Amino acid sequence: MRIDIITCVPAMFSGLMDQSILKRADDKGLAQIHVHNLRDYAINKQNQIDDYAFGGGAGMVLMIEPIDKCITQLRSERSYDEVIYMSPDGELLSQGISNELSLSKNLILLCGHYKGVDERVREHLVTREVSIGDYVLTGGELAAAVLADSVIRLLPGVMNDETSALTDSFQDDLIAPPVYTRPAEYKEWKVPEVLTSGHQAKIEEWRFDQQVARTKAKRPDLLRDSGLKD
Ligand code: 6GU
Known about the structure:
single chain; 230 residues; two-stranded antiparallel ribbon; 9 strands; elongated; binds 6-chloroguanine
């Protein structure tokens, strides 16, 4: 998978792929992130990429021309599954969307700033708009990093244990069960006995019961569509 990120703050992505699971994905050639500085596509000597909104109002608007030049350049090099505009009013990112996007070969993530982008970018250049939650960030960069992380970790071969992404919270609309490691007793705080019993069927049953109980307690909204309610 290749992810091209268009941003006016490229420094926000430095180091993103240098650690942990994303580094392994990069090392194995499973995922690459290419960051493009919108200013490199500025239309004049002043390196201008934003301007005042027609009709007035506070805040600068990212101009269409630098964004179009950058996207057109990328599209001339390869075809993209989606051109995603990171925006607080986009569709809410979920495990389902990440699963879907993880089947992509090439993605463009466009990060907005200021008061947003010229609406014609959304009308003509973007195929999808994604938000990471109902709160406002200063720009789409952190949201793009979140989306990239959640998608890349799902790519086959990225995780150590091939099945581990499948047992994440949310993959089956249930929160993951609690986990413990040695020592089995610490300051009189004990690990549930079933986990050290060696009885695998009982362990699986206990884990599932825990998932359902925890989801009911913490995120009852997840159970609504799962058929597991009551
Ligand atoms: Cl994608 N962008 C911005 N600026 N704020 C956000 C967001 C995105 N998702 C949640 N808040």
